[in-house]
Amino acid sequence: MQPTVNELVVEQFTRSLGNLKNILKKAQTHAQDRKFDENLFLQTKLAADMFPLIKQVQIACDTAKLTCSRLSGTSAPSFPDDEKTMTELYARIDKTVDYIKTFATNDFKGYENQKISFFWNPGKHMMGHDYVISYALPNFYFHLTTAYAILRSNGVHIGKGDYLGEMQWKS
Amino acid sequence: MQPTVNELVVEQFTRSLGNLKNILKKAQTHAQDRKFDENLFLQTKLAADMFPLIKQVQIACDTAKLTCSRLSGTSAPSFPDDEKTMTELYARIDKTVDYIKTFATNDFKGYENQKISFFWNPGKHMMGHDYVISYALPNFYFHLTTAYAILRSNGVHIGKGDYLGEMQWKS
Fold it and tell me: Residue B97: inside a domain, yes or no?
């Protein structure tokens, strides 16, 4: 048996976006404990010319959303990047998860032959299979881990367990 | 058509470990240009209580190696964590890639029912499918991105394109 694309992208993104939300909540608690505005974290960066936390979260959400729409050959709803608070970022994550959960295995039938194009590379496309392996999954985790790294290097008490989330242990 | 586990893990890990090696080489060039020992990067961290670069690379390699052995129900060779130089880290990446490339689609038959256990959680196991989705892929990219972030925040001139590597564009 091979994994379905649905399991692969919807299951991974849903899990990991939930973990991201928990990590952001720990950052909020950290800020409240130290009596500073948690929204200061939104503009925090790892390097001057990298994206700040808010953008890392927005791109992680958009990668999840667009992976599902592109592989199913459908159009994704537009989620404008207008969040200004941690609470609004939670809502962005929630609506992304609600959207990607609408997909079922059959929606991705023929995903490997979808031609995926990007506005920044006109006239070119990637095939669906290459897109999943070479772009969608690594890009999603890049932004998730960078969001984690921004908060972790700013003293928020989080660890790998928060990033990975609950494991399905059996005995 | 669904992606094979072989495509999913071997293809992703091979690509991404190659990208990691290129990123390390850019760090080496950066150090040489500025006339400092490139091996100073090996102990660089994002936070005092996080693992340094060398350990991020070793864990990324081990995650790739152990994912293949665990999902195929075989034993992996031991690669001791005794690297001391950037050049030795390249060799660690190379032998990991050589090893994971020995796997073919058939080796992962029944992967979803493999019981995956960890020495740090005795008496418990995870099923192969859950292991891929919830542990192997996110853990691999966590260490890859953290290695990138350590170098990026230390001024090495790398960007997302180096992390993602060459894309399979078609026209």
Answer: yes
Residue A129 lies in a domain: yes
What is the complex's ipTM, to 2 decimals?
A: 0.97
Tokens 């050049």, residue located? B87
CATH of residue B143's domain is 1.20.120.450
Q: Is the predicted pLDDT of residue B111 greater than 90, yes or no?
A: yes
The CA distance from A71 to A140, in Å, is 15
CA atoms of A138 and B105, how far apart (whole Å): 21
Q: Is residue A171 part of a domain?
A: no
CB contact under 8 Å between A137 and B141, yes or no, is yes
User: Do residue B134 and residue A2 have CB atoms under 8 angstroms apart?
Assistant: no
Is the Cβ pair B146, A145 closer than 8 Å?
Answer: yes
Q: Name the token pair of B91.
A: 């060799």
Q: What is the pTM of this model?
A: 0.97
Q: What is the C-alpha separation between A117 and B87, in angstroms, rounded?
A: 38
Domain count, chain A: 1
B59 interaction partners in chain A (CB closer than 8 Å): none
Domain assignment present for B170 = no
Closest Cα of chain B to A168: distance in Å?
6
Judging contacts by C-beta atoms under 8 Å, the chain A residues touching residue B115 are: 170
* B123 contacts A153? CB cut-off 8 A: no
Select from B161, B144, B146 the least CA-distant residue to B44: B146
Q: Which residue of B lies nearest to A112 if distances are taken between CA atoms?
A: B1
Q: Residues B170, A114: contact at Cβ < 8 Å?
A: no
CA distance B38 to B45: 14
Q: ∠B2-B16-B165 over CA atoms, to 5°?
A: 100
Residue written as tokens 């999913």?
Answer: B8
Over residues A126-144, the pLDDT tens digits come to 999 999 999 999 999 999 9
Structural domain including A74 reads: 5-164
